[in-house]
Specification:
Blueprint: E1 10-12, H1 18-29, H2 35-44, E2 51-55, E3 58-72, E4 75-87, H3 96-110, E5 115-119, E6 132-133, E7 136-143, E8 158-161, H4 164-179, H5 190-197, E9 212-218, E10 221-231, E11 234-235, E12 238-239, E13 241-249, H6 253-264, E14 269-277, H7 283-286, E15 296-299, E16 301-305, H8 308-314, E17 322-328, E18 337-344, E19 351-356, E20 363-366, H9 367-374, H10 380-385, E21 390-391, H11 396-403
Parallel strand pairs: 4-5, 13-14, 17-20
Antiparallel strand pairs: 1-2, 2-3, 3-4, 5-16, 6-16, 7-14, 7-15, 8-9, 9-10, 10-13, 11-12, 17-18, 18-19, 20-21
Length: about 425
């Protein structure tokens, strides 16, 4: 329930009320929603997870969430995928966003989701609400003429064009092989696959061609896939099109070789551009000229630990040890205080017990700092060099690095 003195009361959405809720979001982003986009939202959105702030009967700000399972080192955890956050420009700087974030995180906690995650339209917005940079996002653009492999060999399988129905029948199992071992990867429902991944509405193309769906098979077994578009272009010297990789999932080294060899070999293309790629990328070690990728890294998935002990207990740890961590959390005060993180079991797969303590802290951090190391994107020592961690016990940062170590960097290929 909204606070009685809230200037802009917040209400949950209804299935029939998504279109008016989209208005402040579209105005905030300077866009206009199409009938096709609204239909997609109806299939993928959860109406009761839409929140709107109102002035009278007019929505002036929104925030929504998807229900996901988030892969973490050694396991997975329930996560709220925060999306559709926007405030109509005429109501900025009036506390509307803060009220929406407050209500949403309270709701996430009540639903029993230990973690909230998001892609940020502006990276400066969410750290004040306790989100930390949990995964990096890679992008590259490479000239087709510079895609030679360091160790050339023929692909073990072949790529085959499939229609949406066959893609729906084959791609998810390939994706799940990747998701099971990749921190930051998200579960996908059948509706998500059908309407967010494989669907190809005109508004999605943004001046490019249709979405092509290719399955990589080795001895008849699905082992990888690629989704791409081509933005055609020509000049007096011939074709100079650009291949835009929508998603390439390659759970095995030979799938990596097969899928990317195919993408690098599409005719009438001069450059290949990819975004939402892992950092570091296997191609940086597989190509003869890795500099040709022009690889850049920026912020990817932002992570908010909503129920700190449950979130920390959901992942596995790289060492057997015990540390006391003093956590500051101004926006979710139930997380604040001293926590003892004690692990037991096999090195690399140690299970944690997280409990409150009055013991002297080994480290002092903000909750956003823990979020930055939660999936393995950064180490506590990285944060310490940025002046974001206080070491109270000598050697505690080194021990924390060993605890939070992960054998794979996080990657989220799912935009939401």
């Amino acid at each position: 329930m909204p606070e009685p003195d809230a200037p802009y009361p917040i209400r949950a959405g209804t299935p029939s009320g998504l279109k008016p809720l989209a208005r402040p979001l579209m105005v905030a982003f300077g866009e206009e929603i199409t009938h096709a986009e609204l239909e997609e939202w109806q299939h993928t959105s959860e109406a009761d997870r839409w929140l709107a702030a109102y002035e009278g009967e007019t929505p002036i700000g929104t925030a929504a969430a998807f229900t996901f399972r988030l892969t973490v080192p050694g396991g997975e955890v329930a996560a709220a995928g925060v999306t559709a956050v926007g405030v109509e420009p005429g109501h900025r700087r009036r506390g509307v966003l803060r009220s929406l974030m407050r209500r949403q995180l309270d709701d996430v906690r009540e639903r029993g989701e230990p973690v909230a995650i998001l892609w940020a339209s502006e990276s400066a917005i969410y750290q004040r609400f306790g989100y930390g940079l949990g995964a990096l996002n890679g992008q590259f653009e490479i000239d087709r003429a510079r895609t030679a492999w360091l160790r050339p060999e023929e692909p073990a399988g072949r790529m085959r064009l499939v229609d949406p129905d066959e893609a729906l029948a084959t791609f998810p199992a390939v994706y799940e092989r990747m998701r099971a071992v990749t921190p930051g990867a998200l579960s996908r429902t059948e509706d998500w696959w059908r309407w967010a991944i494989l669907h190809d509405a005109e508004h999605m193309r943004r001046g490019s061609g249709p979405k092509f769906r290719y399955l990589y098979e080795v001895d008849g077994a699905a082992e990888g896939y690629a989704l791409y578009r081509v933005k055609g272009d020509w000049d007096e010297r011939g074709p100079r099109g650009q291949l835009l990789v929508v998603e390439a999932v390659t759970p095995t080294p030979r799938a990596l070789r097969g899928v990317w060899s195919f993408l690098f070999g599409v005719d009438l293309v001069r450059t290949i551009r990819a975004s939402r790629e892992p950092v570091p990328h296997p191609l940086q070690l597989a190509l003869a000229d890795p500099r040709a990728l022009g690889m850049t890294a920026g912020d990817g998935l932002w992570v908010r630990l909503v129920d700190l002990p449950a979130a920390l207990a959901a992942r596995r740890y790289g060492a057997v040890d015990a540390l006391v961590v003093e956590v500051a959390d101004a926006f979710c005060p139930w997380n604040a205080g001293r926590w003892r993180l004690a692990t037991a079991g096999g090195t690399g797969a140690a299970v944690a017990t997280v409990s409150r303590t009055d013991g002297a802290p080994d480290l002092a951090v903000d909750v956003a700092d823990l979020a930055a190391v939660y999936l393995g994107a950064f180490r506590l020592s990285d944060l310490a060099r940025a002046g974001r961690v206080e070491e109270r016990t000598p050697g505690a940062i080194r021990r924390a690095d060993a605890l939070f170590a992960s054998d794979r960097a996080p990657w989220c290929s799912t935009m939401f």
